[in-house]
TrEMBL record:
Keywords: Isomerase, Metal-binding, Zinc. This is Phosphohexomutase. SUPFAM superfamilies: RmlC-like cupins. It comes from the Bacteria. Its cofactor is Zn(2+). It comes from Myroides marinus. Residues 12-116 form the Phosphomannose isomerase type I catalytic domain.
Length: 322
């Protein structure tokens, strides 16, 4: 069976969260009824939430089925060599109306030992932020495990964490073991490893609609926390119609494309690409086929595609795995 080359879209997997809001609908145009949707999983290979194709001849197939039928065409030989037929990324949009819990994620070794999972390294790209919005990332200088446990017990953990004001276009790299929280008023795009393992250590003493507090993972987190100072804020160039480098790490690479006119990507056929439109609109072209590009859209480009053209007035994230 020959493979049909085209930009693949997936149905978003929407997640109600205690901290969720309405920006995924009002800003990104998602078809949502609830006022508490916190996450839109745009493409996922997490076993409990496998993305389903929304367009074209493969509509209705889930991501794993597509990979099984066309592994080389979808993932590419470089990705298969590293991950076999397991999709290595999870990409999502998050709308934090209220603060997320203070949390962290285990590294690959610990996640595999405990959960049979990848670890969870992630990157945030801020798409919109209300006035005064901030994120919480990492400890202040000189914090030890003893300090952490003392403040955790006294419910003063936020006092030893770094709060960073945010605005549109800010980027943060969250390595495994980094204590962090997305603050209320922030809409962002999150690129991460395929993992849903989170250790929640403090949840602002809030209760859900039934009057219950959410589960904490204090003991699990102890071995996973990294107290070393990290460079979490990333600066990058914004040259028009160019793939400006944001981040390269062992798990994913991210470029920033300020599109005003046309951008052409000539790629090898050994790996897939994702294009995420964070603002504006335009079109994406493969061969003779043209497809709409708009804010809030995540487009999967199969490995077998050799050239992609973007046209329009937009900002786009280009994501791939080395």
């Amino acid at each position: 069976m020959s493979f049909k080359q085209y930009p693949i879209l997936f149905h978003p997997i929407l997640k109600d969260r205690i901290w969720g809001g309405t920006k995924l609908k009002s800003i990104l145009g998602k078809d949502i009824d609830s006022n508490e949707v916190g996450e839109s999983w745009e493409i996922s290979g997490v076993s409990s939430d496998i993305s389903v194709v929304a367009n074209g001849v493969y509509a209705g197939l889930n991501l794993n089925d597509l990979i099984q039928k066309f592994p080389d065409e979808i993932l590419g030989e470089a990705i298969i060599a590293r991950f076999d037929k397991q999709f290595p990324l999870l990409f999502k949009f998050l709308d934090a109306k209220d603060d997320l819990s203070i949390q962290l994620h285990p590294n690959d070794e610990l996640a595999q030992k405990r959960h049979g999972s990848f670890g969870k390294t992630e990157m945030w790209y801020v798409m919109q932020a209300d006035e005064g919005a901030r994120v919480v990332v990492d400890f202040k200088d000189g914090v030890s495990q003893e300090d952490y446990l003392k403040h955790l017990e006294s419910k003063t953990l936020p006092s030893i964490l770094k709060e960073i004001p945010v605005k549109k276009g800010d980027v943060f790299f969250i390595e495994t073991g980094t204590v962090h929280a997305i603050g209320g008023g922030v809409l962002l795009a999150e690129i991460q490893q395929t993992s849903d393992i989170t250790y929640r250590v403090y949840d602002w003493d809030r209760l859900d609609a039934q009057g219950n507090s959410r589960e904490l993972h204090i003991d699990l987190a102890l071995e996973a926390i990294n107290y070393d100072k990290k460079n979490v804020e990333i600066t990058y160039n914004k040259v028009v119609n160019t793939d400006n480098h944001i981040l390269e790490c062992p798990f994913f690479n991210v470029n920033y494309i300020p599109l005003s006119g046309m951008y052409t990507k000539v790629k090898d056929k050994s790996r897939f690409y994702l294009y995420v439109c964070t603002e504006g609109e335009g079109e994406i072209i493969i061969g003779e086929e043209k497809y709409e590009l708009h804010c809030g859209q995540t487009i999967f480009i199969p490995a077998v595609v050799s050239e992609v053209i973007l046209k329009g007035e937009a900002t786009v994230l280009e994501i791939f795995v080395s």
